[in-house]
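FORM 7B: Structural annotation worksheet

SECTION A. Query
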Amino acid sequence: MKTGFLLGYPIMFSQLGHTLVGVADSIMVGRLGATPLAAASLANVVFHLILTFGIGISYAITPLVASADGEGNKEKIVDALRHGFLINIIAGIILFIIISSGGQLLHFMNQPEEVVMLAIPYLNITALSIIPLMFFQTFREFAEGLSLTRVSMVVVICSNLINIVLNYLLIYGNFGFPELGLNGAGWATFIARVIMALWMAAYIFYGFRTRIYRAGFAIGNYSKKLIYKMLHIGIPAGMQYTFEVSAFGFSAIMMGWLGTSALAAHQIAINLATVSYMTTSGLAIAATIRVGNQLGRQDIPNLRLAAYSLLTLALIFMSAWAILFIAGRHFLPALYVENVEVFAIAAPLLIIAGLFQISDGAQVVCAGALRGLQDVKIPSLMIFVAYWVISLPLGYWFSFKLEYGAIGVWMGLLIGLTITATAMFIRFNVLSKKLLRTSSPAE
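SECTION B. Predicted structure
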């Protein structure tokens, strides 16, 4: 458990750092009023839906590098970096085009018009940041596959501080900078992510422990077989995140049908729940690394031990988050916006958010362990069924047919997360036991 924690805590902080960009943006934009906050929520539904697919694609690098590192195969490690970089940059450009050309679709989502008018220009600005973020993800996933997790933590935290300072300058127009309002938050995020990408690339190129892999920066002589293998892992992994994030995104759209206050309350609750999710998401990446590394060594008993140790850590952390959300349900919304109606809706949502913390932590770590086994297709199908076939229809029924309102939508999410966690745990246990029967531990 200690090894998993030492590997995982920097990833937890770097994952949390990504989320805190959104938290900082939401808190600072919330001071402008409920409408800009709701606009940020709506735009982020679209942006994060596309972004998480791209991040999922980049996750193909980690298990391949971790497994090659377990084998001690430098050539495979270099090839994973070269091909991963090509795939991620092309994916970043394509996803940028999709986001920037799809903003007008917000008009057809039956959302308040004043919210849509603010959301579209903000979305167009933040779309630019997906390219440097995919650039960053290439080198981050490579470093983490080598169990070098602390550098990305430092880079992300420093970039977040830059983002907050730029928010202060560009949202409110302080110290002579233009007052750009919500759009200022978008430009701040873009600039911070460019800095983050360049910093991470420089570390891999010049770092004492990573410069032996400089051949990974070479262009040309690509292997179609390896590209196919990485896409075979990355695309289903991206679909996993897309199914999950799009489910939460569609829940935001349903909240918009209930009004601006409900949507703003949802943004507060989901923002806080995302913070807790990202802490265990860091443990999930640690599970991918540890499982992939032990798979390369063919040490299946330690593979299972590593996964279950990280799962235990996740349950401990998420229990603490559950207590915080339930106990702080009246205090936490006040950090975002000053609106009594929004407070009244957000407080019960945070109770439900507290209840699904255990399921959320379990499902994300088990999914990470399955990625370490390079098993991504069946988990993607499991997530699709849990959310889109069961969770969202139930949420709609609770909310609009039984008239539970905003609480009904979140009841559906609670059910979806619980089903996903159970299915992921069972699948990892079955697959790892099968490996245990067919493989012998490393001498």
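SECTION C. Observations
The mean pLDDT is 87. The longest helix spans residues 260-297.

SECTION D. Sign-off
Analyst initials: ____
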